[in-house]
Amino acid sequence: MTLKDLLCYKDIVIQCHDNPDADALASGFALHSFFTKHKINAKFIYGGKMEIRKSNLKLMVEQLEIPVEYVTSMDEPELLVTVDCQYDGGNVTHFDAKTVAVIDHHQITGDLPELSVVRSNIGSCSTVVWDLLRNEGIDVNEDSNLATALYYGLLTDTNNFTELWHPLDKDMRYMIDYSRRLITTFRNSNLTMEELHIAGEALKKAIYLDEHSCGYVESEPCDPNILGIISDMMLEVEGVNCCLVYSILPFGVKISVRSCVKEVKASEFAEYIASGVGNGGGHLEKAGGFLERKLLEKEGIAFETTSIEAFMKGRLSKYFEDTEIIYAGKYDGNLSQYGLYQKLPVKLGYVDSSLIELKGQGLGRGDAENAGGLQAGGATALLRTLEGDIDVKLGDGVYIMLGIGGEIYPTKKEKFERNYECLDEPYSFPGEYPPVVKNMEEGVNVEILKYAKSCVSKECSRVYGVMLDHRVKVFTSWDEEKYYLGKPGDYLVAREEDPDDVYIIAGDIFAITYESVEK
Predict the structure, then answer these.
(1) Same domain, yes or no, for 14 and 122?
(2) Tally of structural domains, the chain
């Protein structure tokens, strides 16, 4: 579905979830602006038991002139668009409509109408709507109020950007031209005395698992930023390397995760906690997520305090107990017991990093805090991919490989020449998100696919490999600080000519790129 598909309707109501947050308000505001731009008199509403009470949200609505209305009843519209929620979801009041459309970023919990866009891997609904507007050729920066609303929606729904992980969310953050003054005003009106009390009470009843150097605690229902404050303070406790704070809401469970050790990526930790029942993600040290009530109940988990606590403790313990950690150069596995596999002549793509010009498309003047990126002389780049951000040294001797599934990984020039042959034909990228090199300090976004060329793997490339039956974290020779995660069904491999070069290959990729050979 595109936004243009909705323009055939003239009686439109946009509805966000009850007790709306900043992301819901921003997303609905953006849709309302879109319809207004096309001279459609749409209405923006929310229902529920109470009107907006939080001071930062009241300021947001007032200062950004968001035309949202609180209603308890409504005439049946020709089209009802639910935003940041799904029609008949547990967090949204039911209103009848002749046609329903859904725009959301949460996990799908029921049947969706034909008109729907649900992108569960995106950090905020604001990002989803922003991308839909871009596809219609609309620059949100032309309206400062709208741009500021979308930025604040992303900021709050990713817990002050600590749960920002999808590259599209990151792109929006740096391309939005927002009002710093208003964002500062909203952020400094966020904490109430009641929320300060909630944080203190949660810290007093925290539980610590000494064997895993991990802590967890339930907090009373509160703003996601408060969960972040609690988890930040828990991590400062001696002997606590990672922690989980959660809050049970009427329609699900919000979680906040922290880590201060390289063996636990907070983003991957949050994803594991939410696996199968919600979504999670974020950064290396800070992350979060949401567990859907309907999905928990489908798994037979009663939606009450003791059952949720048991679920959290069980997931925490299993996370540590079922995971093996391998450091490249220190792996002592018996390769003779592994299978030997030869790489098939599969077509891939590659980029000679020395050819990348450190110029690019200018980004917005957004906050560059914690951005990282290209260093002096262009020696080091932040390579942004769907799998995450990778620090890569650019220049002679470093190639960036583009795998058959769109996966991105660096390799040395000598390894490339030993294992691949260059092809004189165009390259077509198969992935969802084209990788880019980021220079946040200078506001530069460099697309690298224009440098991409085709290649084919040589049959001489061979590896020892074993299919995993458990989770494995591998610290490769390329990056000693960030691990690659292997799950059951993936392959742990080591190059035949260099057994210390240990890494992970996804099971579906391995099946079509390697074949078994006799030793």
Answers:
(1) yes
(2) 4
